[in-house]
Amino acid sequence: MRAVRLHRYHQDPSIDEIPEPQITSPLDVVVKIGGAGVCRTDLHIVEGQWEAAQNPRLPYVLGHENAGWVHAVGEGVTNVSVGDTVILHPQPSCGLCLACRAGDDMRCTNAFFPGLSDDDGGMAEYLRTSARACVKLDPGTDPADVAALADAGITAYHAVRKALPLLHPGTTAVVQGAGGLGHIGIQCLRALTGARIVVVDRNPDALRLAEQIGADETVLADGNQVQSVSGLTGGTGAHVVFDYVAEHGAEMDAWHMTAPGGSYFVIGYGGELRIPTLDIISTERNIVGNIVGTYTDLAELMVLAQAGTVTLHTQKYPLDKAVDALHDLDAGKVRGRAILVP
Q: Of 138, 142, 144, 165, which cross-links 35 as Cys (Cβ 3.0–4.6 Å)?
């Protein structure tokens, strides 16, 4: 099968011919990929940001946002059958450890993460995962239309869901970055809260999309974005800031946009937050980390998606154009999410 494999950090991946994955355990599921999302984390991997952790070992197949059709199942699989349309939670879990028993499967002690761990990802024609990762979809769903909800979607949703007790009507939420994750976060905020939504982005096209999908106010990141948000919030800042960028200085902007007693939710990564500890305690601002989400988060998000409440805006590329998709994402040319279609 064809697959997008990274052989060396700081170099583009290549399209290789490799063997198809096989069933090796009773709960294995092999999925024929119908859509694989292109994530900024894929760029970070190529750039070597994960090299120090020696994870993943090279060469390996990129891709952790995947949806498609069940191609083969292990003898113990009962929740899906060959031919079912599925979206895949990016981190298959064991179901037996204490974290899984508590419903916090993102902290499963026996999990693996295709496309990030040593297990090959889904930028390929087929992917091996597990039964516990599969969320069955309506048969009429095009996997390419929803694939990126498997990571970008639940990451955005997970952060919003955690913040719901803080966002009663009359509060203000700032979304920094209206790209692949941010445009989903905006829709989740609109669907689940009564907060006023202010969106900050450096790209006018992204801000126009934000207006169409639920933003109450938009702010161009032109160097004066912190002051603009201050003006929109009566000089106090936002009750909650969702930072889907968190690099190139955006992380400090987000902190300064957060009101005293407010919460800064960090979702993007790559930057470095430098804050005097006195500033944290004297203003009682909270810093909240967020990574992906649980199986339940994905199942809930798919209810919103299949009802049309949350829509993934995509640009589709054939699998052979994977490098073009990565370059377009890096250059800020992708509105919404880039999807590879084998």
A: 144
